[in-house]
Amino acid sequence: MPVDSNITGVAIQVRDRFGALAIQRHFITQEQLDEAVSVQRAAAKAGFRKRLGDILIKKGYLTQTQVQEIISGQTTVVSDNKHVAGYEIISKLGEGGMGAVFKARQTGMDRLVALKILSPKLAKNMEFRERFIREARAVAKLNHPNIVAGIDVGSEMGLHYFAMEFVPGETLGSKITACGGKLSEREALTYAHQIALALQHAHQHGILHRDVKPENVLVDKDGTVKLSDLGLARSVRHDNDAAMSSVGMAIGTPYYISPEQARGESNLTPGTDLYSLGASLFYMLTGKHVFEGPTSAVIMAKHVAEEPPDPCAEVPQLSKATSLLVLKLLNKEPKDRYKDGKALATALQDALVTLGEFTVAPDVSGVSKVPTPVFAMPIGHQTTKIKAPRITRRRKSTDVSGGLLATLGIVGVLALVILWAFPAPKRPSFPNNAPNPKPERTPDTGTIKPVVEKPSAKTVPDKLPVKTTEL
Hints:
Radius of gyration: 40 Å
Shape: globular
Helix content: 25-40%
Number of helices: 16
CATH class of the domain at 171-391: Mainly Alpha
């Protein structure tokens, strides 16, 4: 939202300036606008790019709702000789160093999109134009619930555009401002957890963001975080930053830039995004930047040379786990930070567990084969609170004799069952006149001789008694 919000040299132009509309709607006075403009110009000389609306909010002259109303009221037109094929421009959403973003309707699909138009200054550089198209196409292949989806990229009549998913909501930076300058510990950790998963997915596909900050994170109405502004991210497969350096652009934002970025290193790793996320988390928790200074050069020098402050010094009620997590992210060397976004997400999970509440849901992002817990959404979102599961370790038994006795006991029981189920067959009965074939030992000599019983008129029992002796 700069003073002059016209985008010259391209098809889309904004007719009404932000400040003029704010005065027209009686939100601010001319004196208040002039004061904010002076602050904006001073910041620009020091190397900072500050939006007019953010300055007016910080001074208490405007609310976030009023800023959004002014932006929506900025009418846009498309010139007759140039147009964005297949898109109907509705209103302007914002503007940055890379260009402007508009709310538009994709006519073919009849859906709302966010349409980013490359800055005319950058569009003059052929290498940067090619890079813009190449990286936008790479980002369009990403598919993650915490990343703004890419829809289309192209150029026509000198106009270079990138169509993205339209997210109804606000930036994380605006939300922090609306919440009084900082977030609760649980809410900040929840947002950081989602961003960590988004970065992990991007890194797995060879994309570095290089400008992770609250202003590049969108929060939709149900509390889901979506990492945005990936259209100008860099692929790790392309290390040439000549296009950016040739137009004098600083890579990254001074408040959140990593030490290696501040030193101008080109061989960056995923750790650079994790550092920026750590600086963003510090701001979410404390309402202050890790390092402050009068110019961007001074701030970047501090990122390189000075040790970061302990978040607990700013907010004493923060848990120790959260403080240590932030300080680990802000280590000067990438190797001393977390290994990757997945490891960071696990650490954020542990920090949330120490707060005593989280919700469990499957992670459908494809980041991990194992479902990842998704934590409680910010206040106002319905969640189910559960206690962390209690882990009980089984003791390994090394008593061999005890196991043997148990085995023998089982065998004995099985034997009794078999005997009960299959009893021994009955001995056959003999007729009254049949001799008993069993021998009988005589008590005097111990010799064996056959004994023949005489027939009797009495009834013969079914089973004759048989005497036996051991041979």
